[in-house]
Amino acid sequence: MPMVVSPFPSRRVTYRFGFLALATLALAACKKGDPEKCTQAQTVVRTAVQNGDFASARTWREYAYKQCDDTSSLPGLDQTIVQGEAAAATKKAQEEQEVQDTNALAKVFFQFVADNRAAPDHASQNPVCEPLPAGAPATSKDHFCTATRQAGNHSLEVRYWDADHGAFRFTTTLDGQLDCKAMGGTVSKEWDVPAAGGKSAKRDRCELGGALQGLTAVVTAAHKAPLYVVSPTYVAHDPGWHAILEGP
Length: 248
Hints:
Shape: elongated
Helix content: 40-55%
Distance between the termini: 120 Å
Number of strands: 8
């Protein structure tokens, strides 16, 4: 008896092709990302982290997860954000501590000036005086002396003319920056001075008030910069210091 071939495919074959078609459509539906936008989002996230804009970084991180079908690199992107935020928080805490330490040192320093301006030779128990000029009598006081006291890791120093204790210069070195307003002073002159890295920094001459009335402070807007407080007659005995006090 001859074999009869049906003109219609079997249902099993039909179902198989139908399943493959549905699977292909489902896979295509899952791949909704855009490779170009995926790359762009990751680049923007890293730039935002470098700029400290973590709100934008997190917004673009969400966008990256929507645009990147291959998410294998995205955990590293998350780690970049976390590490950036931690570094920024540490830096902020260090800066706040530096401000506190600078203000605390400035307070101690200005009190040191106020307490010793009338008798700078009493600022420490053992002032050290420079040698007298050649030929000067042994009783001469025409030379500078320096008295030093410690405030933690910082030195508080006063250099005074031994024959005129009203001619003095108090000095300390600040960790951070301090401006004239923070000292309760009034800026009488401002100019630029060379700073590290070929840059420049602002230097202010401040006229002080209160317990430091009549004295002048010189402060530079840079880290680890000296802070000076001088009397009106100091420069007469130290002419080389005129440029620091007066500027160009």
